[in-house]
Amino acid sequence: PSVLILNGPNLNLLGTRQPEVYGRATLADIERDCRAKADTLGLAVDFRQSNGEGTLIDWIHAARGTHAGIVLNAGAYTHTSIAIMDAISSVELPVIEVHLSNIHRREPFRHQSYISKVAVGMICGFGPFGYQIALEAIANHLGIATP
Ligand code: DQA
């Protein structure tokens, strides 16, 4: 089975973007670690990033039939996008929500997540390691035995 790992706006700048909040790992570092983790779980990985809300929605639509589930860090669209929430509801694929930072100890406008309303679950505050946890969570949700 293949998992779509989707990253939203500004996550292409990881490594140099507010390192005191998001750390020094780049998105390429996270992708490499996801591929290694997915290998151990017997999952294929399709890892993408877009700054565009519509592009993310198009990718969610296209995942139906090609991917078993989605790991999603929607960036700031998390807090604003009814459209991404609706896209997730429309495709009926399991989504695990990830955030590098603990959104609940940050500004109040980050406490609300439209993604959480339709996700299987949400992982936040563990930095890049959250993606590893999310891959285990999706494998478990899909009934794949984890080593
Ligand atoms: C983020 C948290 C969001 O509030 C923020 O807009 C991001 C990154 C995270 O991974 O911690 O872009 O999703």
Automatic annotation (TrEMBL):
Catalytic activity reads:
3-dehydroquinate = 3-dehydroshikimate + H2O
Question: Could you give a GO molecular-function term held by this entry?
Answer: 3-dehydroquinate dehydratase activity
Could you tell me the keywords of this UniProt record? Amino-acid biosynthesis, Aromatic amino acid biosynthesis, Lyase
Site Transition state stabilizer — annotated at: R17
The UniProt entry annotates the active site at Y22 (proton acceptor), H99 (proton donor)
Q: Has UniProt tagged this entry with the keyword Magnesium? A: no
EC category name? lyase
> What metabolic or biological pathway is this protein involved in?
Metabolic intermediate biosynthesis; chorismate biosynthesis; chorismate from D-erythrose 4-phosphate and phosphoenolpyruvate: step 3/7
EC numbers on record: 4.2.1.10
GO biological-process terms attached to the record: amino acid biosynthetic process; aromatic amino acid family biosynthetic process; chorismate biosynthetic process; quinate catabolic process
Highest rank taxon of the organism: Bacteria
Residues annotated as binding substrate:
N73, H79, D86, L100, S101, R110
Job description of the protein: Catalyzes a trans-dehydration via an enolate intermediate.
Q: Which family does it belong to?
A: Belongs to the type-II 3-dehydroquinase family.
Q: How does it assemble?
A: Homododecamer.
Report what the protein is called: 3-dehydroquinate dehydratase
Give me the gene this protein comes from.
Answer: aroQ_1
Full-length numbering of the shown residues: 44 to 190 of 194
